[in-house]
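Hi L.,

As promised, Glycerate kinase:
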Amino acid sequence: MKVCVAIDSYKGSATSEELNGAVCQALKKLGISSCNVPIADGGEGTLAILSKAFTGQKREVDTIDLLGRPIKGHYWLTEIDQVKTAIIESAQILGLTRITPNEKTIQAAHSYGLGLVILAAIKEATQVFVSLGGSGVNDGGLGLLAALCGQDIPPKNPLLLGKKYLAELVFPNLDGKKLIGLTDVMNPYTGVNGFSYGFGAQKGGTEKILAQFDAAAEAVRKKFQSQIDLNKFSGSGAAGGIGGGILLAGGQLQPGFATIAQLLDLDHKLASCDFVITGEGRFDEQTAQGKVPLGVARLARKHQLPVVAFCGARPENITGIEYHFDGVFSIQTRPITLKDAMVKKVTLENIALLTENVVKVYLSGQK
């Protein structure tokens, strides 16, 4: 028996590599071989996974974070299918973890620093992948656009700078280079499911502020609508609208999981396996939006393989996606606080124990 292990990171607790490693060790104790595939969906951890899958070089760039503070950004320079490629993780530069979100930060934060890193990468690479998950900005990608156009650093969130600033925005020239945003959500640019109403609250936005942001984003959408209607593109609302910014810059959006799975040749690896273990930190309404567990499960079903998901937490009902899995299990072994559950040692011990128990049950049914 051979088990494919492809678990996304448990955000704030353990990386994909660590979780996969714990599961593979548990399988080894049972005398079962494994295929270890660290995986991501375009969110945090994407750069670490792809930089280990593709030999290359780390390039450092002087840039700024989402509040304009000087930092060292970086990208991974490699070759994929003989094409010189740069890989950037937006969360490394603009991550929500860099700030304590509140009303002031959401009105100050912008994506200009990410644009500076993209500019540096484009000078060396023919194509640039940008993973969009985990961002703390809510600027519609306008900061990124300003950097790519050579404009000055905005004094605050550019969505709040009014019609004069908006009138100065233009399409940048990528000089024939390919810019690809990897999205981990399918949200449009504006509206009830747009980037402001969809994710702005977790970035410090109040109801009043979010209404203001959505109205400003709608003005951006209408300005460029004759050339490109951002709401017609799935994922344009990813990363506080940076997905839309990439489209306005002449780039394209691709589903993060599908792209990364293809780059890692996951489909081919599954063909040689008998059982699949996937998972993520929390199963919720976002799981159905192109996240790792659902993507892995769909590929597993293609090969008619049994597939289970291990998560840190799950709701009582996972209506709409449960039929993709043979089982969805929480790794928790007892009542526990969120703080204690997030401890890495606890997470890795629990997922190893769950692996042993689930696989033993599966094997007993095969006798």
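The chain has two domains: 2-38+265-365, 46-257.

Thanks again for sending the construct details.

K.
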